[in-house]
Design a protein that fits this description.
It contains eight helices and eleven strands. It is of the alpha/beta class and 228 residues long. The strands form two sheets. Strands 1, 2, 3, 4, 5, 6, 7, 10 and 11 form a nine-stranded mixed β-sheet that branches. The chain has a two-stranded antiparallel sheet with strand order 8-9. Strand 2, helix 3 and strand 3 form a beta-alpha-beta unit. The termini are far apart.
Length: 228
C-alpha cells in the first residue's frame, strides 16, 4: 500500500496564502492557467460542507477505501494506516471512498476524529457518512461528506494509499486539497504558488465592476466599456 507523494509540499507560507481565498476564487484562479478543463478538478455537490462556519481548509490528501455494509475482518493494520498518514506532509486531509452502493455506516465520529486530529489531520472528505456532529464541531475538524449517519454499522478500511474516486474526482495521496462551504477541489501543484497573485488580479477586476454597478455613475454604456 503506497503513500508516495506526487509533488514536494508547499512551504507553509504558500499553503497559508491559499487559505486566504474562498473556493470560488481559487477555482477562478485555476482557470486562468488553463491547466485542465474548466469542468474538472472540483467535486460534485454530493460532497457538501458539514461545518461551513469553519471557513477555508487546505491540506494534503491521504486516501483510502471503506465499506460498512457487511461483516468482515479488517483487511488492514491500524498501525500501518497510522504510519501511512505520517508519511504525508502536514496538514493532512483524509479522503475516503465509500465503496458501498448505498453508504450505510459512518467511519467518522468523535473517536476517529480525535485519533486523526492527533495524527496531524484537519479534515475528512468522503462520499460516505459522518456523525457525532456536536463533538466534532467542537474539535474544529472539517467534515465534507455526502451524508450524515447515526451508525458505524460494520465499517472497515479496505485499503489505503491508492487513488480513490470521490464526488466525481480522482484523488491521489499527496494531492493538494482546498475546500470551504462551496465545495472541494484539487489544486494543481504546478500553479499552486502562483495562484494567490492570480486571485488578487481577479478580485481587483471584480471589485471595479461591482463598485461601478453600485455607484451613481452607473450606465449601460459605461458597463459595456468596463466589461468588453
Amino acid at each position: 500500500m503506497t503513500t508516495k507523494r506526487n509533488h514536494a509540499p508547499l512551504a507553509p507560507i504558500d499553503l497559508a496564502a491559499l487559505r486566504r481565498y474562498d473556493a470560488p476564487t481559487i477555482a477562478n484562479g485555476i482557470e486562468t492557467f488553463d491547466v485542465r478543463p474548466w469542468t474538472e478538478g472540483f467535486m460534485s455537490p454530493q460532497i457538501r460542507c458539514i461545518f461551513p462556519e469553519m471557513g477555508v481548509m487546505a491540506g494534503y490528501a491521504v486516501t483510502g477505501k471503506i465499506r460498512a455494509s457487511r461483516k468482515g475482518a479488517a483487511s488492514y493494520s491500524r498501525h500501518g494506516w497510522w504510519d501511512a498518514i505520517g508519511a504525508v506532509s502536514h496538514p493532512r486531509v483524509i479522503v475516503f471512498e465509500d465503496v458501498d452502493e448505498t453508504p450505510v455506516g459512518a467511519f467518522w465520529g468523535e473517536v476517529q476524529t480525535n485519533i486523526h486530529k492527533a495524527l496531524g489531520c484537519i479534515a475528512t472528505v468522503t462520499n460516505g457518512g459522518v456523525r457525532d456532529l456536536t463533538e466534532v464541531r467542537a474539535a474544529g475538524f472539517h467534515y465534507f461528506a455526502a451524508s450524515i449517519m447515526l451508525s458505524h454499522a460494520y465499517v472497515q478500511l479496505l485499503e489505503y494509499g491508492q487513488p480513490v474516486r470521490v464526488g466525481g474526482v480522482t484523488v491521489k495521496t499527496g494531492d493538494l486539497v482546498h475546500a470551504d462551504r462551496h465545495g472541494v477541489q484539487i489544486v494543481p501543484f504546478e500553479i499552486a504558488r502562483d495562484l494567490p497573485a492570480a486571485c488578487e488580479k481577479i478580485i481587483a477586476n471584480e471589485r471595479k465592476v461591482i463598485a461601478f454597478c453600485q455607484s451613481d455613475a452607473f450606465s449601460l454604456a459605461g458597463l459595456k466599456k468596463l466589461v468588453p
